[in-house]
Structures are given as C-alpha cells and as structure tokens.
Specification:
- This protein is α+β, with helices and mostly antiparallel strands and about 550 residues long.
- It contains six helices and 30 strands.
- The strands form six sheets. Strands 1-3-4-5-9-8 form a six-stranded antiparallel beta sheet, with no helix packed on it.
- A hairpin with a 2-residue loop joins strand 12 and strand 13.
Amino acid sequence: MRYQKPTAICRYAGSILLLLISILSAQAHVGSPGVIVQKQAGNYQVLVSINPPDVVPGTARVTVYVERGRVGNVEARAVYFNAGDEASPSPDRLIAAAGQPNNLSGDIWLMDIGSASIEIFLNGPDGKAKLIVPVMSVATAQRTMPVGTGALLAGLGVLLVVMLITIIGVSVTQAKLNPGQAIPAAYRIRQRLSMALTALVLLGILTAGRFWWESREKRYQSINLYRQLDVNSTVKTVGVKPQLLIEVDTASLARNNRPLSFIVPDHGKLMHTFLVRFPQLDAFAHLHPIRHDTLHYQTALPPLPPGQYRLYTDVVYQNGFAETLTDTVTLRGSELQSYIASDRDDSWLVDPNTTKQPLRLDGSMASCGKPGAYVRLSDGSTMIWTDKPTDVLETDQLYQLQFAVADAEGRPAPLEPYLGMSGHAALVREDGQVYMHLHPVGTYSMAAETSLVRRIADTARTYQYPNAQFFRDSIDRALKSLNDLTGDEYNQRLGATMPGMVHEKDGNRHLNMVAFPYQFPSAGRYRIWVQVKRNGRVLTGAFETQVRAAWQ
C-alpha cells in the first residue's frame, strides 16, 4: 500500500492531515473493511491502518506511519472491552520496513468476537505515547477447504484407519506367536473379531467427530458469523408532514442479542441515517432520528423526490461496538412547505441538472496545480476537489480526499464546525454494496474510542453494565441538555468530546479545507457527498469518481 501525499494547493490554505481505519470496522460501514486513524499522540503525528481478519480467530494487519516525531520502537496489542486491560496480552513489537524506520507493521491476533481495540505504544527520543484504535472483531466469512486438500486428507485418513485396524488385528494374534509359528484357526477368528470391533469403534469415533464438527459449524454460522441487526423502515404522514419511522426487528434483536438500551451518541446524535436514491444516486439526506423507545426511532423527511432509497443508519453501543443498519424504503416525495427538520443538523441535497459556470478563483485561492472537479453549493460558494491524482483512482491505495471551499468571489471561505468537526462525508458505490461515513480523523467512531479508552483505564477484569433504564434515561437527558445549547456553546460542547480534531501544518490553520483519508475496497463508480457548514447552514457537495482494481 502506498500512502499518496497531496501536493501543495493554496498559498493560504494547505492540506489538513488526516487518516485511515476497516471492517471491520471501526466506525460503521458496509463493504469497506479496514480502519484508518490519523491523529496526534503525544509528540507524534501518526497514520494508522488496520486490516482486521474476516475470520476469528485471525490476525489483524497493523501498519503505523509515524508522520512526525522521532520514534525508536512501536508495539501493539489487542484489548477486548469485556476483558479490559487486566486480562489482555502483552504487546508485540512492530517491525520497520527496510529503509523506512517510520513505517512499521505487524500481525496482531484477535482471538474472540466482540468489541475490541488495538492499543499502540510509541517510544523514542520524543517520549512515550499511546493511542487506542477501535476494531470490531467479528467474523464476516467462512473458509472452505480446497478440493485437492480435502481429497488428500481423506485419503490419508482412510490409510490411517486401515493401518490402525491392521495393527490391532496383528497385536492380538501374531504378537503372541513365536517366529515362524503357524497361526491357529482360533487365533484367526480372534483376529477377525478384534479387527471388526476396532472398525466399529473407529466408525463410532468418526461419526461422533462429524457431529461435533457440524455443531461447531452451526455455532460459527449462528453466533460467530456477523449478521447486522435488521430494521424495518416506513414512511408515515403526520398531518401534512411525512415522517421516516425506523423500527428494530424484534426477531433479529433476539437472534443477535444487541444491547439496544446502551446505544450512545456519536457526534451528539444517537443515530446518523443516510438516505440515497437508487439507482440514480441523485438524491441524498443526512438525518438524525429521535428515539421514542428502545425499538422505535423517527425523523421528519426532507423534500426528496419520489423513488426507491437505500437507508444506512450508524449506531454505536456503550461497549464500543459500532455497526451500520441497512434497509430500503420507498418515498412518494414531499413539498418543501411542509418540512420542518427534526434536528438542527439534518440536511439533504437533490443534484441540480444545470450547466456549470466557469471556475474563478482569486489570488489567495490560486492553485499550485490544476484544480479537480468542483460543484456549486446552495449558498453560491464553490467546493473544489483539489489535487485528485488521476481521473480514475485505484483500490488498495490510501488517498487524501481533499476539498476546499471558495466564496462567490473566489476567495477562501472559512468553515464552521459541523457536528464537532470541519466536515463529514458519505461515500456509496453505485450498487450500494459499499458505504462509508468518513471523518477528518479517519473512518472510526469517536464514541467507540471514548468507550474503549475508559474501559482500558478501568482495572476491573469484568465489566458490570449499569441499569438499562437508568442508562437510557441519562443519555436522553444529556442529549436534551446538548440540544438546548446554541451557537459556539453547542460547538464547543461537541468538540470537547472529540480529541485530536485540530489539524495544522506549519503552524497555520487551513480554515476553508477538509480532507478525508480513505482506501477504496473495490472497483466501481462511487458517489461522494461532502458536507461542511458556513454561516449556520449545512452545505453539501456531490462528486463522482471511478475506481479500478490496482492490478488492472
């Protein structure tokens, strides 16, 4: 994997350093396994890439790029939420690539399913530091044995059975005779009986082994193999206002045993729901449903055009486990006059079919290279995808998806915090089988990180969950308190829950830019919705890119 650095783009606005994380995910995702994190850890600026296994037990590939700081050695270990620090293994040392002392990697075993983290320790002339990377340790695949290997093992098994039967038959007869002595008829009968009895015993053992193996396979499929929690999405009109209702399927809940009472806010929201119209990919909404009870959530629908929509809903549990719940829903369309947002940060975009005006930038936005694609935003400003390396991107490459905003006069347009950070992005492949919610610090959930950091600081070997009703009520009260705030106070409270969100270069903040590190998992056509905030308005820009397999 090559880390592709962006080129310099603006005199007064350069790149924001950001990062990479997967399957399993740390932040919720669909079809994009890998976890990416880029942040400051002590005196070190690091970019971490973790590729979890798709079967558990298995090894996660951990790669640490030390972008700033002098490091001597880096170690890593897996820590499960249930086990905590006290019951976790000692760390393993990562190995530096040849001639690249700041590029270190290694394999870390994940031995059980559940919410986990990779704890990374850095040590060198610039001091000691550590960081926690949330990783969902879940099995998403089942291995099958190659036909040739199966045939070989079956043949060897038959040979061993025949040899064992023969050895038993010889041991009860010829082993008791003198050399050269003829085998009496009684011994031959005894030999045949002992061999037949041995064959029956071995048949019983093999049959029991087969039943045991099948039971283990069923357990793997029903318990170990990850299945998302099912939800049922419907549209209901309340008065003249269409509402999106999300109901958790009770049968799926019983089967998958999710702790729904222990959902925690991420970026100040219990749920992040994205709606995308398929197959057009021309209508998009980012909504934040409100909880009515443990199973039911509701939000007002913005004026989206009618059609079939894919729904992606991100949730995070108190144990740090994050997942995306998916469904399809049919919308009939609604009028703008009837729309009143359920949440101040809800937003939507219907791509306009208008001819683009020429891109004009003033001197302070002059690009050192050729600007990439650009779109007009609803307030008259322009969002530019800067420094896109090629028209067609490749899989297995870590890219900085970097965007700048210019106002109507072509000058740098400073951005306000949106949900506690400089921007958000949602990415979907044209068939809907890949989805990712991107952040400027990577693809992981900050709420999951907070839960896992607290758990590691806890010295208890077994975690004791609080009362479910008390926990749920306390979360609802905290959200109400947050939503009662306005302006800077609201942004400051959100930002305080997300450490490491400040990105700097050469001491200068690049206030009109946002970037998202990402590694495309598969080839295809992708649509990317980039969301920023200016003058109290959430602005969304939609971009497309084609991705090909790296080996093509």
